[in-house]
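Hey, sorry to bother you again with one of my protein questions. A protein chain has come my way and I'm curious about its shape. It would help a lot if you went through both lines with me. I owe you a coffee for this, so here goes:
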Amino acid sequence: MKKVTTIFAALACSITMQAQKFEGLANTPPMGWNSWNTFNTNINEAMIKETADALVSSGMRDAGYVYLVLDDGWMAMQRDSNGNLVPDPKKFPSGMKALADYVHSKGLKFGMYNCAGTLTCAKYPGTRGYEYQDARNYAAWDVDYLKFDWCNTAGINAKEAYTTMSKALRAAGRPMIFSLCEWGVNKPWQWGAPVGQLWRTTEDIWQVFDSVHSMGTWDALSVMRIADLNDSLRKYAAPGAWNDPDMLEVGNGMSYVEDKTHFSLWAMMAAPLIAGNDIRKMSQQTKEILTNKAIIAIDQDPLGIQGFKYADTDSMQVWFKPLQNGDWAALFLNRSSRVKEVYFNWKTELVTDKIFHHELDRNASYKLTNVWTGKEEGTTAKPVKAMLNPHDVIMYRLKK
């Protein structure tokens, strides 16, 4: 009997460890747009339809940005008499199913927001205790993506809460990407892979390059502070399970150079690319950053490896990312406020990805394509030598 008991225990453990999430939905990092960074809770049906139109007309959809996600503030302040979430009738008079149908008609996918707590971050009804009911409503509305936040969660166990919602989505039967917006407080990278397709690794981002922004009781983080924190978690990222360093602030107030560096870093880190600007009014420069095919290809590389910081000397950083077919991406970043010289000798540096076991071949001569200019700039037979402006990057794709 002891042997039989052991077998059943092992089987039970195996079942417990099986993924709750829908598989195959995010083999590369999800790409899309979210309303929060620009609009907070000031969202409505007309604006969302205009954004869907703009995602198409701007070329964003065709570049890969297919998930249009409503963040906090879409619902009424109270559930109805049956306990259902109700879209705010003034903001969304046609309801969520009609809006989802419109978004889908544009060749996009529709995403929504709620929270693991009793209330959302903006004090709208949270999901705690209503997980299966809410999941059924999302499925009925043809939702494709759920962002699940972590406000008002005193006394709630994060792993349990997110696992419960993941199981509820699975039971509802409609495949949805599940985004664990837990801010990294309870180390979701250690338990999130069976639960969702991506998990936040830090507090919220703000449109600053290298500092913090006080929100009173907590600090929002800059591009570089988030990159510092996210870099150490790369071993947890894989196809279908991504570290999420938060949404993009490209087009929201930083300089052109800083936006370009921000986008480059997120691509090197295999981050979800969720735009947070007003797509309807973006500048040509912002559009060119967000739709740069060569950068997007590095982020979306099927190998699915998060890049790593190889060197950081006197605010001059060097990052590498292994790509499919033996290609590599390399990034040189001047974090300082002064012009600095880049010098890198490909033949003397030993670039090794010790976690995923890739090594840059020092004996090979890789072609260097500058992915921001599109120009070929020689090979790795000669060192890189250039002057780099503050906060700027040089980024290459290496190909044998």
Residues 308-399 form a domain with the Immunoglobulin-like fold (CATH 2.60.40.1180).
